[in-house]
Amino acid sequence: MTIKDIARQSGYGVTTVSRVLNNQPNVSEEAREKILEVVRRTGFRLNSNAKRLKQQTSSGIAVVVKGTNNMLFPSILQRVQSKLLDTGWACMINYIDESADEVEEAARICAEAHPLGMLFLGGGIENFRQGFSAIPVPGVLMTGSARDLGFDSLSSVCTDDVYAAECVIEHLLDLGHRRIAILSGWTGDESNPVGLRCRGCLNAFERRGVPFDAGRQLVTSRFSLSDSYEAMCRLLDAMPDMTAVFAAADVMAIGAIRAIRDRGLRVPEDVSVVGFDGVELGQYLTPKLCTVRQDSEGIADRSVALLMDAIRQGTTASHELVPFRFTPGESVRRL
Amino acid sequence: MTIKDIARQSGYGVTTVSRVLNNQPNVSEEAREKILEVVRRTGFRLNSNAKRLKQQTSSGIAVVVKGTNNMLFPSILQRVQSKLLDTGWACMINYIDESADEVEEAARICAEAHPLGMLFLGGGIENFRQGFSAIPVPGVLMTGSARDLGFDSLSSVCTDDVYAAECVIEHLLDLGHRRIAILSGWTGDESNPVGLRCRGCLNAFERRGVPFDAGRQLVTSRFSLSDSYEAMCRLLDAMPDMTAVFAAADVMAIGAIRAIRDRGLRVPEDVSVVGFDGVELGQYLTPKLCTVRQDSEGIADRSVALLMDAIRQGTTASHELVPFRFTPGESVRRL
DNA sequence: TGAGCTTTGACCATCAAGGACATTGCCCGT
DNA sequence: ACGGGCAATGTCCTTGATGGTCAAAGCTCA
Fold it and tell me: Among partner residues A43, A50, A73, which is closest to B53 by beta-carbon distance?
């Protein structure tokens, strides 16, 4: 079934059929009707490969999502999708794990799809470096800043992680907490959002003159309930006198709370817990989770907007911070 | 940048370059080396549109996900993605909302991508009817059975929702509960998984001779925390003497628990709660959620396998049930 | 040295659609 | 009545990669 068959069946030429199917002018109403009738009857659809080959366009946007446990991702993805639907573009999503070979495989698949642009969700710049930087299309890093990294086709949209983490620690200090533990994600790279959050914590401790022993007070964990549970157990061993813990993600905070309770301790009476992300779920837990609410819709909207600009107008990369909101909650108490 | 440029730059012909890039025989090692060197240096990639046009293949799998609040979806999607990565196929994911026009838009985009196959996650057969059934490729419905529906290209893989719901109700009845409320999803179509779960509940009540007044004891809600919270409030108003509630999804159970607590009632002392899905999160809540654990990995694996068979061997549609496991938990007590 | 074989590469048609340009036919003004 | 002008339509070439055909080159062996 090709456009030629439609032409033959309708008694017109391929050009006329093409004009009808692309809503172009210079076609008589009669021809339009007849051709559309044949198209409807046969269920014909243009071959997208041929169309894109001729028009030198490609298939839409590729989205790379690293990790599935971040509870903020589903809402961001839906928002992105819904924005892209408005443009009529397709959206290829690649979920990848943290292992290197999957990143490369995903990069290969993305590259072969010849997307017009790429969005990166989760992980920091290290993913991008490792495979995706060879794909010569505009991109937006939706978590973590790409400023000062020398990629002029990579924009970024994120929360001001450093400042937000500072706010969290300041808040805990204001409430009288001094022995504060940090449950962090991977911190190898400070352009990583979690690394930035750690930096914010250290800044706050320093500014307020509160000593902080990273070896004892900080433990890293992956973004998963089970991993953060175990990490929190280690923290409790190393620092049994802690009065508060800051988890670098809500999902970690939830794992941590379970660990605290399984030790027979109470939240927040014995240990206060603060999360990061502000997922809706946090407000349905008992106690309601104190957290930093990231504006997932804002992140999605601005990312898509930046990407569109870059694709359509060739705008150079820019870097935006999306406002966050510190959300006090019952999981923290005043000492 | 085309294959011709590579040919010119490497001093070979396009045929040879094509053979190298497609790992075909009859190329000298020297030519292979030289050509690959040029490819690496220039970052050249075959134009996938041209390639697919010539080879009359298409771009991979389209996945349609309806709703983002089901906490089981991320793990299923990642598993699907990882299985598909093995095949080297791309995977286009479409998140859609429940509104009709988004379904149609998504269907249009999927159709234009000419996928080799489709996967449907969330929602029941009604989505498929409404737009996707016109896409002439094999599909697998990952939630809800497509048996007896007369689509011979649509397979299905799901949990035995009816039986699982029967188990839940039987369990509650065994523990002495008699005034059991049901917090259900949309029930308009009994091929819908949530509809099937309701049917299972009714079966169990009937078999055990326990009266059930659907008008008072059953409330429907969307798959969201806020919606199920409100629905639970209505249930508590209509049936203040309830001793247990069965929520048709874990996310609803969590919304319900918040509603119960906001009334000053305790879980499970005043009201027992059972969920459905068995998301990992449930075991991190307090109390640990009693639920039905669906085998998300099994669902993903079997769905991909069925789809692959249908695409590669033209297997006709089949319908599979994946075992579930009833998971007792602290959110239910014996009366 | 040349017949017979294998390896290698140039060339062209092909895929489905789109666009430049040519052609047709009609309307209208003079 | 005739030609200018214009809308409608068709012809033909192009897009990038592939694969078949066939020629050229290199090799072995009598």
Answer: A50
For CA atoms B240, B244, B249, B255, the dihedral sign is: positive
Q: A269 and A249 in one domain?
A: yes
CB B48 within 8 A of CB A112: yes
- Count structural domains, chain A: 2
Tokens coding A198: 């750690």
CA distance B14 to B169: 68
Which pLDDT belongs to residue B84? 82
pTM for this model (two decimals): 0.84
Structure tokens at B218: 């059953």
CATH code of the domain covering residue A308: 3.40.50.2300
| pLDDT tens sequence across A140-181 | 999 877 777 777 789 999 999 999 999 999 999 999 999 999
Q: Which residues touch strand D (CB under 7 A)?
A: A 7, 11-16, 19, 25-28, 30-31, 50, 53-54, 56; B 2-4, 14-15, 18, 21-22, 24, 46-47, 50-51, 53-55
Instruction: Report the pLDDT averaged over residues B177-195.
Output: 84
User: How many angstroms separate the Cα of A241 from the Cα of each of A37, A256, A273?
Assistant: 77, 16, 14
Residues of B with CB below 8 A from A90's CB? 92, 109, 112-113
Residue B31 lies in a domain: no
Closest Cα partner for A154 from A131, A168, A138? A138
What radius of gyration, in Å, describes the C-alpha atoms of chain B? 25
| Dihedral sign for Cα atoms in the order A175, A181, A186, A189 | positive
B301 vs B295: CA distance, rounded Å: 10
CA–chain centroid gap for B213, Å, is 31
Strand partners, B140: B119, B155
Strand order in the sheet with B218-220: B218-220, B180-184, B244-247, B272-274
**Contact call for A106 and B85, based on CB within 8 A:** yes
pLDDT of residue B155: 93
Same domain, A153 and A301: yes
Q: List b or e across A12-34, with b for residues whose CB sees 16 or more CB atoms inside 10 angstroms.
A: beeebbbbbbeeeeebeeebeeb
Across the beta sheet with A180-184, what order do the strands follow? A218-220, A180-184, A244-247, A272-274
CB A238 within 8 A of CB A182: no
Q: Which of A261, A313, A308 is nearest to A287 (CA)?
A: A261
pLDDT, one tens digit per residue, over A101-144 is 778 777 777 777 778 889 998 866 777 777 788 777 889 999 87
Supply the range of the domain harboring residue B197: 161-294
Query: What's the whole-number mean pLDDT along residues B165-183?
Result: 97
Q: pLDDT tier at B97 (50, 70, 90 boundaries)?
A: confident
**Helix (H), strand (E) at residue B324:** strand B324-327
Per-residue tokens: A229? 């549970």
Q: Return the DSSP state at A27.
A: -
Per-residue model confidence as pLDDT tens digits over A268-307: 999 999 999 999 999 999 999 999 999 999 999 999 999 9
Contact B48 A113 (CB under 8 A): yes
A234 plus A250 within the same structural domain: yes
Pairwise CA distance, residues B257 & B272, whole Å? 9
Tens-digit pLDDT profile for residues A22-35: 888 888 899 999 99
Q: Which residues is B115 bridged to in the sheet?
A: none
Residue positions counted in chain B: 335
